[in-house]
Amino acid sequence: MLDSSRSRSARSFGLDALRVLAALGVFLKHSSLATGKQLQSGWAWTNHFEVGPAIFFALSAYLVYSPFVRAHLDAASTPSRLRFAVHRVVRIVPAYWCALAVLIVVDRASQHGGVGMHFGGPVGIAELLTFTHIYDPRHFFDGIAAAYTLDVEVSFYVFVLVWVGVIRWIGRRTNPFGAEVAGLCGLAVVNLAWRVLVEFVARPDAVRCTGSTTHWTCAAVNWLPGFLDYFVLGMACALVVARRKSLGKRIDIVPRSAAAVAIGAAAAGLVLYSARFGTVGLDTLVSPRALFAAHELRFAIVALLLVPAVFALHAAQDPPAGRARRVVRRVVPWFAMVSYGFYLWHQACIDLAIRATGGRSFHARFSNVAPLALVGAIGIAAVSWYLLEAPLQRRRDRFVPEAVRSL
Question: The pTM is what?
Fold first, then answer.
């Protein structure tokens, strides 16, 4: 028996909890930086919730790649890549374009600086709309602050469309599982080679990647190859799950005690990361070696969180439900559901909260701004979900050609 429905529910809750943790971490990072709290003595650690995007990357890779790798190992028909592409466009693009259209009006920074977003003129706006602005160092920091990770995510979707065809072709001539393993190892090598090239070879010693720096290597380290290891982690988890299902084995293979230890180790790793790599804002670390070490520690933290969420053993039945537990069981999946809207709108809500409380960039009271921005971002995310995202999700197959719907 592979999984009980209760185990699947518990696993889904664990993945939702990771998504919520990542979203709140990103919010804390951005709100503490925008208000200047991160620049105060003893608060630099809030910058290290940048682990949030890495969690999103690994989660996305696991969820996106699972149906493709399962079909590959089972020698079944590959899920329609056209359907996948259409579904991803419907899920990502309308809400993002809507947010940009509104924010270019209500949260655009003046030419003289101040709180708000920069859009870079017609070229910058075109790059923002097409998810390509991270590939232009002049506009890397334009638009929604967190959207560079969305560009990476969209790049991964395009990559998957090609990768699935290539790895399937190789698997037909060798062994599907062996081809998948070799392919993931190859991607890990590409990631390592890319970061060595960009950070140790191409980047001049004097370059520090701050918000005002436009050296191409500062952008390039944040392109898809620079984050491939996180995606490989998620794809590897999907591969193991698919392999065990194809062999008729359980997925729950990590004892709960080991899962608790892993989560504790992830928390300890975050503390170590904050203490050892105490950077502020967007500055790089003092050396390429330190930057490399920070990246690898982030990877370890994400792995220690993702693996238990996917593979941990779950109780045969839930423990008696108290009021607090019932609330958490309802709130976490709901927040995870609206998290994309929260991701899109939280920076604007931080900017507007700074203005509303009489502050300015890097000079605002965090304790006033953060709660106001958090409530506002959750509220707008809910509106975005119920009025735009959910209706489109229910109708997404209407955008798929008729000939593909039956595949």
Answer: 0.91
Cα–Cα distance between 156 and 230 in angstroms, integer? 11
Distances (CA, A) of 287 to 33, 221, 279, 284: 22, 14, 12, 8
List the pLDDT tens digit at each of the 407 positions of the chain. 334 344 446 668 889 999 999 999 999 989 998 898 887 777 777 777 778 899 999 999 999 999 999 999 998 888 999 999 999 999 999 999 999 999 888 888 765 456 677 888 888 899 999 999 989 888 887 888 788 899 999 999 999 999 999 999 999 988 999 999 999 999 999 999 999 999 888 887 777 666 555 678 888 888 999 999 999 999 999 999 999 999 999 888 889 899 999 999 998 888 887 777 655 544 445 567 777 888 898 999 999 999 999 998 765 445 456 777 788 888 999 999 999 999 999 999 999 999 999 988 888 999 999 999 999 999 999 999 999 999 999 988 887 776 565 55
What stretches of 197-255 show up as alpha helix (H) in DSSP? 216-220, 224-246
Q: Are 35 and 362 in contact (CB under 8 A)?
A: yes
Terminal alpha carbon distance of the chain? 28
Shortest CA distance to 24 belongs to which of 148, 146, 142, 115? Answer: 146
- Cα(75)–Cα(275) distance, integer angstroms: 48
Instruction: Report the helix count and the strand count for the chain, using DSSP H and E.
Output: 15, 0
Q: Give CA separation, 252 vs 7, 11, 70, 190, 304, in Å.
A: 8, 9, 17, 31, 16
In sequence order, the β-bridge partners of residue 254 are 312
Give the Cα separation of 297 and 314 in Å (integer): 27
Which phi and psi angles does 110 have, rounded to 5°?
-75, 165
Residue 292: closest CA among 191, 407, 160: 191
Task: Give the DSSP H/E element, type plus range, for residue 195.
Answer: helix 176-196
Write out the DSSP string of 242-271. HHHHHTT--S--B-HHHHHHHHHHHHHHHH
Sign of the dihedral defined by the CA atoms of residues 121, 143, 399, 404, in that order: positive
- 320's CB contacts (< 8 A; 6+ apart) are none
Residue 142 near residue 133 (C-beta atoms within 8 A): yes
CA distance 399 to 92: 14
